[in-house]
Fold each of these.
Amino acid sequence: MSLLEIIDLRAKVGDREILKGINLTVKHGEVHAIMGPNGSGKSTLAGVLAGRELYEVTGGQVLLDGKDLLEMAPEDRAREGVFLAFQYPVEIPGVSNMYFLKAAVNQIRKHRGQEELDAMDFLNLVREKMQIMKMDQTLLNRPVNTGFSGGEKKRNEIFQMAVLEPKLAILDETDSGLDIDALRTVSGGVNAMRSPERGMIVVTHYQRLLNEIVPDYVHVLADGRLVKSGGKELALELEAGGYAALGIYDEEEAVGRV
Amino acid sequence: MSDSTQTIETFANQEYKWGFVTDIEADAIPRGLNEDVIRLISAKKNEPEWLLDWRLKAYRHWLDMEEPSWANVTYPPIDYQNIIYYAAPKTKTDAPKSLEEVDPELLKTYEKLGIPLKEQEMLAGVAVDAVFDSVSVATTFKEKLKAQGIIFCSFSEAVQEHPELVKKYLGSVVPASDNFFAALNSAVFSDGSFCYVPKGVRCPMELSTYFRINAKDTGQFERTLIVADEGAYVSYLEGCTAPMRDTNQLHAAVVELVALDHAQIKYSTVQNWYPGDKDGKGGIYNFVTKRGACRGVNSKISWTQVETGSAITWKYPSCLLIGENSVGEFYSVALTNNWQQADTGTKMIHIGKNTTSTIVSKGISAGHGQNTYRGGVKILKSATGARNYSQCDSLLLGDKCGAHTFPYLEVRNTSAQVEHEASTSKIGEDQIFYCRQRGISTEDAVSMIVHGFCKEVFRELPMEFAVEAQKLLGVSLEGSVG
């Protein structure tokens, strides 16, 4: 059985249809990149999979290991193993990163019928993962994302992913706002997470992230549909010719051409 | 309305669990207030002449005073002639001498409230004085405290047993004519708690008073007086509940604290008077005057309050920093939901040299709740080297509530350092979604954020009270790290 199966998925925000029939299959162990110009629906797809209420699903089906994902509340999707690395990680003042993450880990463990971790076991788990992400210990005691630099926020997302060990990781523009060193660290963290059981969807506007996280498949999303799929070389083609070479434009530009 | 907004509101609208009425016969006097009523109260308590005179003087003052209208709260005019000023549970004997003599119905009530009244159950080491309507019902651990010279008893008993102390300190911090509600209290106060910690004694346990309004249409006017003599230390806790009734009830208390040289008083309140129903009907008017005087050098008074109840709260626990190097602190969490209104804060009056004060106020508004912080920091000319730090944060849950901040600063000495920080935030949909995406339910997410917001204040509460306070906010301690 495939890890994730997206069948003719349609979604809208308000009156505007954004996803117009997406079909995608992700098998265990695969990394899929979804590329596309601004406004093509990349973040919407990530948000719909995670269950963001802003988006209304108007048709289609999504199965995670055969289970109907769209029926589940966002927290249940997370507990089933869906992880979204946010493009803009949210600040939660007053709640320490440590406390937050421990609550998340234990909710997920509870869901899986595992025993909850106590403070010591949790610390041990976290220390190991922090090293991978080259995270400073003090980040643990700081409030979630509050006062973090752009790079720290993104690193914190991948760190959380490493601790939560999801089945399906969705990375939404994880490279945005990162300098090259931070990009390497973050990518290194993601690559360390690649495994035969885990699937990943890497959403990005730019090819540069895919030099670091090399995908098995690349899909091009334009105007709410996957218009082209291929191997990792497709990303290089896009890099060379731009989306325009495929006859694809940013939505605003496209509107101007009509 | 989205799901998470709804859950936020459900969370904020958890039912009032302390709203039961105890079926107990009360000895109440007729409604209304005049000099005869005051004489009657005084006579019932077998008070000395000087105290009756003090009450009458306060009453005459009160007649000339006007109810304050500057607070950011609105309520229909109170008919002071329609209130019962004294109600006591009827007992077979005149006053219970030990717990065995206390009406079992009453003990049941306290049990329901989770107050450890029986000494044998007192593992927590909290000595409790419980005030039911107007009279003090039982004080536990009295003997044990007595051995150290600590006096902890009902106010009425203190008047009988320690008149010299009462006479010396009563009204010395909050004069009878201080304000409208304090004057009213001074005229009609019926009971309360009294505590005196002698020189050099560190009170070995938390002292606690539990107030409960049971009888209908009564006002509760209790008076608390705590004196920490030179080098003494005492930590005092106060909790309050009331039955659910659809008429408003008045609670106008006065608390006076006196700290002499090197003495320290820590005063904590968890106020959970009935807040009224979802439509704003009923609830307690909590109009309270609390003030502490740091009279001695290096003395310290610390107020911590968690205010979740009452229809209207009007309360400003304050410190007079007279002694050199004295320290005043105010830590507050005030929650208003449904139609609750709170106008609360503190006053720090710096008089002595090198006095310091800290104010941390956290206001949480939900439903149609209106939450006002009102704080005054006054640095007098004499207060060379005075320092103040104030922080007022507001958290909004939903979009029909309000948060207001009125900080007043008056600095008359150029060497003073005064800092003020304020913030307003809202629990946003994006925060909730972020938590849910990590497997944390909306309810837990709200708890976590509210808890995080209040952390700095909860930290100041004694452990058992911190737990209660968190429960009151619907917050679980489970999963807490560090």
Amino acid sequence: MVLDEIAAVWINYNLTERTIEHLWIFSIALIAAIIVGVLIGLLIYRRRRYAPPVFSSLNAIETFPDIALLVLLIPLVGIGTVPTIIACVLYSILPIARNTYTGLISVSPELLEVGRAMGLSERFILLKVRFPLAFPMIAGGIRIAIVFTMGIVTLGGIFGAGGLGAPLQTGINLIRPDIIFVAGIWVGILAVILDGIAGGIEASLKRRFGSW
Amino acid sequence: MVSDLLLTPIIQHIVLAYTALLVSIALGIPLAILALYSRNLQTFVMTSANLMQAVPTLAVVAIVVPLIGIGFWPAIVAIILRALLPIIRNTWIGLSSVDPAIIASAEGLGLSEWEIIRYVRLPNAYPAIFAGVKFAAILANSVAILTAMIGSGGLGSLVFEGLAGVNMMKMLSGALPAIGIALFLDASFSWMERRMVPRSGQSELE
Amino acid sequence: MTKRFGETVAVDRISLDIIGGELLILIGGSGSGKTTTLRMINRLIEPDEGTIAINGIDIRTIDGIVLRKNIGYVIQQIGLFPHMTIRENIGLLPTIEGWSREEIDSRVTELLTLVHLPPDQFMDRYPKELSGGQQQRVGLARALVMNPPLLLMDEPFGALDPLLRRQLQDEFIGIKEDIGKTIVFVTHDINEAFRLGDRIAIMHEGGIVQLGTPRDLILNPADKMVSDLVGSDRLFEHIASLTVSDMMVPASSIISGEMPVQSAIEVMVQSGSTVAVVRDRAASFFVAQLPTLLQRRDEVKTVLEATDPPFFLSMDASLLSALEEMKAASASFGLVMEDGEPAGLLLPDDLISRLV
């Protein structure tokens, strides 16, 4: 009975396609956020005096209501997938960049001293010592970004981005409990699974590279 | 004119977000204290709180509808479901991160359980609780826009009406005050934090 | 050379010659400039004035990276890279230098064996799986990997508990003999300095107060600070009450002067002594030293020809005055007589190590 209803909603509202679409947008947004976030973290590490202004700007964006940010993007890029991805990246830069930066600078001084005394170049120390030791921190930032991205991709459904937010909007508008339950619980499960995987990766990196 | 048109949604928005925030504080702090004394409650509260955090806000708002319907109170419930988590989590971390030696010496002085919470654990937890409330306040401000989808009214109504009617001005008249409120909240919490932190010497917890 | 940090002069016009192959100790309290001096040698810190030369080459003319790759460095905090296995930690520089995997493995195996860690048990473990003492052994192995002629060590055993420290010092004395490197070793522990050092430089407020062998420092402290540090007051208090007979080594056997050199060497090696008393036909006594015998075994026939005239001491003479007389006569040992017969030998070098 219940299974039949779930199957009916699943088929009528194309939830397989919606899920693929959802995860596709999610992946692009997350990868973009990781690239941009790690790069910004690295740049700030190289130019430390920019850290306070950059972080306080990113902090301000973080406080914006997500819908308000999507609205602000409409005049610039319209509605749909593109503003959704941009919003995901804007929210996810802070945790990733901040954790990258913190991870890179918090390598213990005696390791750096020994590295220098061994005659390792600054570049080698950055790539082979600082970065690996920052991995658990960066992974922690990415895990936060995953939760943000999942939330905003879902929200993007209201702004024409498709994904699992779209059937949820339909369910709310039509007040259809069946659609709401199936799509809502499904997207919730997906989010919890992704967060769990990220948590597992973070924990194993901490075990592997030590934690502070 | 414009200000009159905006005033009602702004007031609705603030009432909505901050009723929910106050209820969250009133529920969250006692729950965190209780969680100190029951391993089962602690596991349940922390696990469900952590799982809930991962669930997209839209799904939370949507699932409230078939359970308790639409309107102001369902919207409050949806906001509470979001805002409760950071408050419980931070309060619990603050309360439980007291040096065991300090607790032991307080017990040695003959303080009761309640006195230990009142005079030892809570003061230690203030900075963490404060950070949790700040985060919850900003979250409530954000969710209160979305709840216009389930008939809460407020600034979100302007956004969704504007979206439906492709009226950019209307959307912005909903979005911009919400951003203004967010920045104002952030600034005032930071101001209060700066006044608090040097005294307690604690660093901010996320 | 001089190093200032702002207004503070950390190292003030010091001048120091380090002899190839020796273990030189820099000792002093915190702020004495010992670590700063050490770190200037591999250019982790640049001196403000003065020069440092290695084998006559000013180190400022050598690229810092090249210089440091050729100087081993061991510190108290060890600083093993936590994300690399023991093999990767020790093999890091060889990897960068492009050694093959087999070469790296065999070098790592060799070094782990040298520092008494079974290679097959430790190669693939991570630093945090090792105890502090084991980590410090790996730290030493890593510093030795490129076979650097010079090794700098900054309180390497400082963080270990006294028992383990003692054990590592003992092992290190053995390793030091094996590797034959020039070592500059910073410590604040005078006992460690006496145990390990060939020469000791005592530093205070950025200057070198005294530089000398352990024996020099004990017998001729430059000032009150040095005598306090080496505890020579305490030693002298003890020494003052001693007589020669308390500290002499009994003369186990007396060798006849006509004995062939080869037999005398055999006797001495068997009895484990390096100095022996020799009696000639006129019942006069002489002293034979094993190194001299070995050196001259082909030139001379009998022991007598390779002996030195002894410095005579009496049993009940005060130890202190005996040592002073010997020093004045530049005698390296004394023959203790009782009733016209040799009773024992007084060997100051052995004596100091026993007192310390």
